[in-house]
Amino acid sequence: MSEERVAARTWSSEALRELRAAAQRFSRHEYHDKNERWKLIANEIGRGKRDCYTKYKELKSSQSQQRDGGETRASASASTSGSSSASTSARSTPTDASETASNTSSGASEKNSTSTRAERRVLRAKSSRKNVITQDENLISAGSLRSLGSRASDTINKQKLISGSARSLGACKPKNIMVDESKVSRDSFDGTIDEDDEIDSNGSVSSRRSVIVRPIRTDEVRDMLDVLLGQPKRSAGLGPSWRKQGFFFGESPQPRYGLVQLKGGPCGVLAVVQAFVLLELMYGIHTPCAEHWERPTASEQRAALTEALTTVIWQAADRSARVCTYDLSQERSALGEMSVHQVKARAQVRDLIAEHLDVFMLREGPGVLLLLFSVMMTRGDVSVDMDAGMQHGENALIGRHNYAGQELVNLLLFGRASSNVFNGTRNLGDEQEKVVLRGVDRTCEIGFLTLFEHYGYMRVGSRLKNPLFPIWVICSESHYSVLFADTPDCLQSAEPFDLFYFDQLGNQDEEYRLTVNPAPEVPVEHSTDSSRLVSPIDDCIRTRWPGATVDWNGSDPLL
């Protein structure tokens, strides 16, 4: 193997930092299955499971040796040469998050002059998360806290999530290693590079060679429809509101950041994608336009939508993803005409979405359908059934009234089709007949609030109530919409702050800015009296900020 190929497989300092962050995120205290834990870590950073595990053991061993060596040197001598050696060793292999933070801050002064407001907002968002952890008791009612389980365990998990690098600790950067899947099976994939793969000047394998493209199979269409609709309704197929809905932006006077929903039905899908679009516009790495997020250009709209769709698909991936597309040159667009692209890296998903974005953005096109099939095939129908705790074909992700169920919203929000919104898992029954109820396995980038909590039907856990970024999908009156802030300060503020509300189905031609006072002198009493003339959006907000007052600033509250 050539020196270039060997170099492509070595671990850069950035890759080592990502490995440490992933190991912290998928903690052995939370992921007891060692094999599953290292599969998740490998998928997070785009390398082989065995490669990651071996390297992490080397790092731990090296760290231990350095610590022992440092103690020996300190006891033997405090000479200048000893100090120099220890300093050199510390620079060669950073051993903890504080040193990484120190290295980062050392270059901050050089970059300060060119730092964008978007970058500063991302840093503020991450910083604010640390403060929110210590104030959770003030943000969630005592009854809710009791239902969420151990606070100590949850706090530890949150701190581990925050300590990683990059936005949300997710795999946001292109991976350096891509594998030709025609030569390495899914089950045996270990992140190595085949001798015949072409490596570019940056040490990356050509993404085109590692993408498998094929027509979708008839049995795959059947299985996906079983998951979406349930076997009894499969023959009826998806209605036109789902089949003819693309991801396109509104025109003036509608907000330029807003997607448009044509008919009732797929609001859950549109709301989640809208939330990730806003995340990219306000806090994104690839679409840094925080200075004018409410007035993005056409190119910034496309870039934000590309990243949003990429994130929704990739977060459902284990070790590979599936991206479904249509060929615009084909006259028909039946389900059986889809092409399936099988890829190994997030960057490849982004490239495919960018290449086929015009199809996803067609006004009455198959955008929603393509995203649903991409996410479900990426997660796998068996995994979706296991997430939801249901038998294949017995239940459906789309409910009886043609709306997205909680399982589908969760699948799009954080990549798992769990039926619940509490933290972690809960067990029902004894050991012999135990039923495991799955909830939210990590703190999410995008949050979720629901009117059902106001009426006492469910409680949303802190991993969705307190997301990494101040954006929430709202479930109110059988409809999904979005609530968001352009600054993370609201996650911890006791002072009044502004939230923005957007409904993609409401033909919204004005901006709804709501001023929320989380600690008024006279808190609003909780009431489920249906005769009150109170906006259900207000009631949703008060599930997150109990007793808060909400001022619609001259706009008519949506009742």
Descriptive account of the structure:
This protein has 559 residues and is an alpha+beta fold. Among the domains are: 3-115, no CATH class; 211-419, no CATH class. Helices cover 43% and strands 9% of the residues. A hairpin with a 6-residue loop joins strand 4 and strand 5 (435-438). Mean pLDDT is 74; it is low at 1-8, 77-118 and 126-209. This is Ubiquitin carboxyl-terminal hydrolase MINDY-3. Residues 72-98 have a biased composition (Low complexity). Belongs to the MINDY deubiquitinase family. FAM188 subfamily.
Report the structural category: alpha+beta
Mean pLDDT: 74
Counting H and I runs of at least 4 residues, what is the number of helices?
Answer: 23
From the N-terminal CA to the C-terminal CA, the straight-line distance is 68 Å
Q: State the major sheet.
A: 6 strands, mixed
Helix content: 40-55%
What's the count of strands? 11
Binned strand content: 5-15%
- Computed over alpha carbons, the radius of gyration is 24 Å
Poorly predicted sequence stretches spanning 5 or more consecutive residues:
1-8, 77-118, 126-209
Strand sequence of the main sheet, in spatial order? 6-7-8-9-10-11
Form type = globular
Family: Belongs to the MINDY deubiquitinase family. FAM188 subfamily.
Pfam families: MINDY-3_4_CD (PF13898)
Protein name: Ubiquitin carboxyl-terminal hydrolase MINDY-3
Region (Disordered): 57-129
